[in-house]
Design brief:
mainly alpha, Helix Hairpins, 2 domains, 4-stranded mixed sheet, 4 strands, binds zinc ion
C-alpha cells in the first residue's frame, strides 16, 4: 500500500515537472514577450496617429493665418504713398516691416510644422513596420509553443493514464487526502520521517504520533499536513 502511493507520487512528480516546464518554458516566455512588443507598437502607432492629426489641424490653421497675412501685406503695398509727408511715409514703412515680419514668423512656423509632420510620418512608418515584424515573430513563436505544448501534453496524457491505473491499488481515503493536497499545490505530499520529524517543515512528531506511524506506516504532519511515512515499521 505504502509502496503503491510512493510509486504514484514518483510518477506524479513527472507530471508536476511537465507542468512546470510548460509554465516556465522559453517558448511561452518568448510568446509573452512578443505579445507585449506588439501591444507597445500598437499603442505607439495610435499615439502617432493622434499627433499627426493634431499637427495637420495646426498646419491648416497657420496656413490660413499666413494667407490672410499675405493679403494684408499685398494691400499695404498697394497703398498710394503719393503726397504723403515724410513722417507718414516713415509710419507706412514701419507698418509694412511689421507686417512682413509677422508673415516671416508664420512662414517659419509652417516650415517647422511641416518638418514635424514629416518626422511623425517617418516614425509612424517605422513603428508600423516594427509592429508587423513583431506580429510575424509572434505567430512563429506561438506555433513553436503550440508544438512544444502538444508534445508535453501527449507525455502528460500517458502519465495521467498510468496514474489512473495506480490509483486503483491505493486506499481511497489516502488517495483523497493526497489529491486534496495536490490541488493545494503542496508537493511532495508524502515525505519521509527525518530525525523523528517531518522532512519538509521539520516539526518533530510527538511520541503518540511516532507510535501511530510505526503501526500504520503513515501519519499526518500536524503542522504542514503532509503525509509522513516510514519504511521501517
Ligand atoms: Zn510537516
Amino acid at each position: 500500500m505504502l509502496k503503491d502511493i510512493l510509486v504514484y507520487q514518483q510518477k506524479d512528480a513527472e507530471l508536476v515537472k511537465l507542468d512546470r516546464d510548460l509554465e516556465n518554458s522559453q517558448q511561452k516566455k518568448e510568446v509573452n514577450k512578443l505579445v507585449e512588443q506588439v501591444k507597445q507598437a500598437q499603442n505607439k502607432v495610435y499615439s502617432l496617429e493622434n499627433t499627426a492629426s493634431q499637427l495637420i489641424v495646426e498646419f491648416e490653421q497657420v496656413k490660413q493665418l499666413f494667407e490672410n497675412q499675405s493679403k494684408k501685406v499685398e494691400n499695404t503695398k498697394k497703398l498710394d504713398l503719393n503726397g504723403q509727408t515724410e513722417a507718414e511715409l516713415r509710419e507706412a514703412e514701419v507698418l509694412i516691416k511689421k507686417e512682413i515680419g509677422a508673415l516671416l514668423a508664420l512662414s517659419k512656423e509652417i516650415k517647422s510644422l511641416s518638418n514635424k509632420i514629416t518626422q511623425t510620418r517617418k516614425e509612424y512608418d517605422k513603428t508600423t513596420a516594427y509592429g508587423m515584424e513583431c506580429k510575424t515573430k509572434y505567430k512563429t513563436s506561438l506555433d513553436a509553443f503550440k508544438n512544444f505544448s502538444a508534445k508535453k501534453n501527449s507525455e502528460r496524457e500517458k502519465i495521467a493514464n498510468e496514474l489512473e491505473d495506480l490509483k486503483k491499488r491505493i486506499d481511497p481515503a489516502v488517495m483523497q487526502k493526497y489529491l486534496q493536497m495536490r490541488d493545494d499545490h503542496k508537493f511532495p505530499i508524502l515525505v519521509p520521517l527525518v530525525n523523528q520529524s517531518c522532512a519538509i517543515c521539520a516539526t518533530p512528531l510527538a511520541n503518540a504520533r511516532l507510535d501511530m506511524l510505526k503501526k500504520e506506516g503513515m501519519v499526518e504532519c500536524e503542522n504542514c499536513h503532509r503525509i509522513i511515512y516510514t519504511q521501517d515499521k
